[in-house]
Amino acid sequence: MKVFITRAISPEGIQLLQNAGISFTQWTEKRELTQDELISFCKNYDALISVGQDKIDKKFLTACSHLKVVAQMAVGFDNIDVAEATKLKIPIGNTPGVLSAATADIAFLLMLAVSRKAFFQYKSISKGTWGYYEPTANLGIELHGKTLGIFGLGKIGFEMAARCYHAYNMKIIYCNRNSNPFAEEKFESKKVSFEELLEQSDVLSVHTALTPETKGSFNIDAFRQMKKTSIFINTARGGIHNETDLITALQDGMILGAGLDVTNPEPMHPDNVLLNMPNVAILPHIGSATEETRNAMSRLAAENVIAVYKKEKLPHIVNPEIYK
Length: 324
Fold this sequence. Notes:
Strand order of the largest sheet: 8-7-6-9-10-11-12
Strand content: 5-15%
CATH superfamily of the largest domain: NAD(P)-binding Rossmann-like Domain
Low-confidence stretches: none
Helix content: 25-40%
Number of strands: 12
Structural class: alpha/beta
Distance between the termini: 25 Å
CATH class of the largest domain: Alpha Beta
Largest sheet: 7 strands, parallel
CATH topology of the largest domain: Rossmann fold
Number of domains: 2
CATH architecture of the largest domain: 3-Layer(aba) Sandwich
Number of helices: 12
Shape: globular
């Protein structure tokens, strides 16, 4: 069995593939593969470990319908046409669970950074503008006792809720398709409608998947319904918020600030006005970027490939209906 990997990955997954006797090639050039290049490579391989946002659409899947598995090294899979893969009987794997804590840490970090204008204050040092002390200038806000609203209370949202509840005694509300009784018991959290989430949240943190239903959920109408003192955090997918509308909301004072680990598009252009706003903190999509998490993600991706090699069901599968 031959596996193509679209980036160099952490050693834990590599070791598992080697131990299983599976041969592989890692793409090591520091540039994105074009889709045509990826198709050309994959025609000579049995399996694909997709790292990042490779476009696994109908065109790719039709051209590479021989693949025995596509193992996504991420929890999200909005870059993959899962319905088409299912038609072609190609199992799609992902890496759920292992990046929840690391991603929640980034959401928490962004919340703190925005609340104290930390990135902007840092820039004042490097720009040489840290000078005269003004007791009323560039003040932040405190978070203790505020209301955290979570859009998508899954594993990552749960970890964010735990941090805010225990560190700052924040009240937890959430908007989900289904209720989360465990979170309600642990954090005294309450399920609310989307409109109530917008109206009541002091910090609104996005942790849902990017789907046709969630795409562009946070547009100008949504921002208008939020508190003028609220902070918007997105560590899920950039497509869930409308970036032009977010800029307008911040410039017009509809919300207090924003913290983003994801943007639309990615990478963000270095001239984007968001980067110079005092009430904004932006990171380059590093939610899962710890040694421990990236090792765990590579392990889960390798486990999905090894399962196919052993003619077993994928342990971490997106489309289990292919086995029916």
